Predict the structure.
Amino acid sequence: MTKRASYPIGRPGMPWGPAEVSTWLARQTRKRSYEADVASRVEALRPRFDVLQYGRLDYRPDSYPLLAIRSREWRDDLPCVLVTGGVHGYETSGVHGALQFLERHAQDYAGRANLLVAPCISPWAYERIHRWNMHAVDPNRSFRENSPAEESAALMRLVAPLRERVRVHIDLHETTDSDESEFRPALAARDGVPFEPGEIPDGFYLVDDSENAQPAFQQAIIAAVSKVTHIAPADANGQIIGSPVVAPGVIHYPLRKLGLCAGITAAPYRTTTEVYPDSPRATPEQCNAAQVAAVCAAIDYALAHEPVPA
């Protein structure tokens, strides 16, 4: 894979200002339809679930309803499950995996758990197959007070009343070759720092919370996903994306400190999935299925085990 050492916008060592952001924005084009791919499938779920509009992105000339799906038979005595996808719009299996879970498996948990699923948190970025929103802000570093990303702020408002009640939160992501060829070089250029090439792992892995690690929970997910697609090995340094591998297919991040989506609740069981769609060993169907397997395994484990204290 060819690694780009520079980026065509901005000057080396100088963070972007409004002019550079405008130049970057002018390069972004719509490549697929949120309405056709996501909203229409959510609409088809109305006979079985409650559909909520929890916000709207007004990114002129475009406007996007932010949609979530909730168990119709919501009960206060049941544990709550949060599934999120499409925080990074270009990570396709996160969106379609969440929708596929709803279509094929969500009703298996009726009467056992309250489900809340936000399948496409960043619809503008979904249409443009991009990591950032239209302001060149990464929503998945923006889940914090006074968030600069409306995508992140809207989800936090939705989840706030349930924050202490969520038993498990699984956030669905991908790691792609374009991370290294486009998005990390763009990030370095935006922030005015040198681009340091990395290595893209070949396979599925998980990001656990370093502040409340749940190794048995993570390994239950890895075991389920390994039946669908391959698990990413550690690199020559014993790492995945620069972090030490603490168990097969698992690394740690401080979720809340970094403003990551998986840290927005007090859920004792939380994780971020990472699927590798560019692998010659995986198809788009396998990537979606891996996300679904991860969601089901996460819920099954959380319902079967009392939370382990931090």
Notes: The chain has one domain: 18-304. Residues 142 and 259 are 5 Å apart (CA to CA). The helical segments are 18-26, 34-44, 92-104, 123-128, 150-159, 177-191, 215-225, 284-304. Residues 284-304 form the longest helix (21 residues).
